[in-house]
Amino acid sequence: MTSSPVVLDVRDLVKHHHSARGPLLRRGPHVVRSVDGVSLSLRRGETLAVVGESGCGKSSLARLLTAVDRPTSGEISVLGTRIDTLGGRALRTVRRRIQMVFQDPYASLDPRMTVGDIVREPLRIHRDVAPRGAHRPYVAELLDMVGLDPDHAGRRPHEFSGGQRQRIGIARALALRPDILVCDEPVSALDVSVQAQIVNLFARLQRELGVAYVFIAHDLAVVEHIADRVAVMHAGRLVEQGPTEQVYNHPRHEYTRTLLACAPSLERPAPARPEPPGGRAGETGPGRPLP
C-alpha cells in the first residue's frame, strides 16, 4: 500500500465558523473551530477511517474534502491539484475525482426522480464521462455493480429498503469514476445486518476499482473491519493516526483510549448472509463476509 500513489493530501486544514453569541456567560461574537489544523494523506486503494464522537468535526471535514465548503486556511490536493484555491469549471473538473456517499439514504435521494435518473444525474453535468447515447447501459452497469437489478431503474426511491437506497447512493457516487469516495457515516442509519452487507460491498468495490475511501464513522466495530488506517478526531483536531491494528491495540492518546473503552462491542457488525447467484435476494451484498 505504501508504494501506491497519494490521491489526497491535506495540510494544516482549518475551518472556523463565527457565531453571533459565545458560550454561556460570554458575550459578543464567538469563533467555532470545527476543523483545526488537520493534516492527512490517502493512497490509491486505501481506506482511512476518521472516528470521533458527535460534534468533533468529522462531517465538517468531509464537506471541506469534497469542496462543498471552503477552508479558512490550509491546503487540499487531489491527485496533485490543489482544490482549495479553485473555482468554476476548474473546480468542477477536479471535483469529479472525489465524490461523496451520504449518511442518510432516505434524505439523500430525490423522491420525485427514478433510480435511473438519480444515477444518471452526474453524467448530465460531466458530459465527457459517457456520451448521452451510452447513459442507459452505463447506469445499468452501475446498478449491477452495487448489487441492484438494472430492470428496477424505472422505480423511485420509496420502493426500496434502506440498504438498497444506500446502494443507489453508492452507484451515483461511482458514476463519474472517482478516485476517492468520502463516506460520511454511510452505514450508521442502517440495521446491523445490513451494515455488514454494505461494508462488504465497499470492500469489493475497492478491490475491483482501486478506489480510495475516507470513511467517517463513530462505530468502531465497523471501522475495525474496513479501515487500513485510523485517524482519531477530537474537538476539530486529529489527536492520533496510525494503522488500524496499532491504534486499536496500542492507543497512544488518552482520548483514543477513552473512545475504545466506551465502544459497546468490537464484535459487530454480524457477518452478512451468503449471496445467492445473481446477488438480488433481499439485502445481501456480494462482498467478502466480515470475520
In brief:
With about 290 residues, the protein is α/β, with parallel strands linked by helices.
Task: Chart the SSEs and their pairings.
Elements: E1 6-19, E2 30-43, E3 47-51, H1 58-65, E4 73-78, E5 81-82, H2 88-95, E6 98-101, H3 115-125, H4 135-145, H5 162-174, E7 180-184, H6 192-209, E8 212-217, H7 220-226, E9 229-234, E10 237-243, H8 244-249, H9 254-262
Parallel strand pairs: 3-8, 3-9, 6-7, 7-8
Antiparallel strand pairs: 1-2, 1-4, 4-5, 9-10
Helix pairs in contact: 3-4, 3-5, 4-5
Describe the structure.
The chain has 291 residues and is α/β, with parallel strands linked by helices. 31% of the residues lie in helices and 24% in strands. The protein has a domain at 6-18 and 32-108 and 178-262: Rossmann fold. The chain contains 9 helices and 10 strands. A hairpin with a 2-residue loop joins strand 9 and strand 10 (237-243). Helix 3 crosses helix 4, helix 3 (115-125) packs parallel to helix 5 and helix 4 crosses helix 5 (162-174). The chain starts with 5 loop residues before the first strand and ends in a 29-residue tail after the last helix. Residues 267-291 have low confidence and may be disordered.
